[in-house]
Specification:
The chain is 56% helix and 0% strand. The chain is mostly helical. The protein has a domain of 46 residues. The chain is globular and about 40 Å long.
């Protein structure tokens, strides 16, 4: 059995809702979705860099995120 750790994250109501909807559409829990994202961070880094290249302020203000 894989050892797991708990993580507490604070997000906006909008982000929480959209994450729940996304998880439900993919038949997974929100915990599983967040775990998947965290486990795949190295693969996601180039995408984030690409977004920052287009918009240098990307990620600096959570209210601006899509």
């Amino acid at each position: 059995m894989k050892k797991t750790r708990n993580v507490t994250v604070a997000v906006s109501e909008r982000s929480y809702y959209e994450a729940r909807v996304h998880a439900a559409r993919h038949s997974m829990s929100l915990s599983a979705l967040v775990g998947f994202i965290l486990e795949h961070l190295p693969l996601l880094s180039p995408a984030v860099k690409g977004l920052r290249a287009k918009d240098p302020k990307f990620g600096s203000d959570p209210a601006r995120l899509p």
